[in-house]
Prior knowledge:
The chain is α/β, with parallel strands linked by helices. The protein has 7 helices and 11 strands. The strands form 3 sheets. Strands 2-1-3-8-9 form a 5-stranded parallel β-sheet, with helices on both faces. A hairpin with a 2-residue loop joins strand 10 (201-203) and strand 11 (206-207). Helix 1 crosses helix 7. The longest helix has 21 residues, at 137-157. It is globular, with a radius of gyration of 17 Å. The two termini are 14 Å apart.
Amino acid sequence: MKVVVAGCSISDYTHVDEVYGELYAKKLGAEYIHLGAGCGSNFRMWRKLVQLIMSGTITSKDIVIMQPTQIHRREYFSPFTEGDEPLFGSNGKSLLNEKYNSEGSIIRYKPNAHKDVLANHPTEAKFAQLRDHFVDPDFEKEVFRNQMDMFQGLCTAKDINLWIIDIGYTENLIDYVWHKGKVVPMRWIRLRHPLMDPRHGRDDGHFSQEGHHVAADTLLNTI
């Protein structure tokens, strides 16, 4: 059995040596597939998970956990960035930009990315700054709902054991997903409490190492 976790920096090795998905898999004696990514988007999660489902790497015997992030994030191909770039604070366990092919890499966008994650990449920073002006919350919400419905439909068709984590990072996430007319059932877990406890949150958006242990125990007691 495999445990597969797709998420953003909350689920990634952000200043910690072990993540909650890895710890949960160890408790089950399962193989762990890590798809967490600093500044990662929901589109990256869907892309990676669909590839593994369609290739047969993920089956009905496995546990798939998706931790949705901010709905306006995206990923783009860049011919100006070459090679992999380690995620800050990950001790080399995760990447911020990922080499895609011989022509370039996949970069990650979020609002104000030109000030932090892309600050050292002048061309991509200019692109990200321009992209900031083409974001509308209502449109992003519509796109997120459509993509999530399609993804859940695939998981239902393939009998995938999918769990959605509400980390409290995406505002009104439950409203975005549980909308009028929804027919695909979904398993839901709230993992906000480790972040609410100062002992378990490294900051207001990431777990401390202890917080990852608490989150893993929550998964063990829920799934």
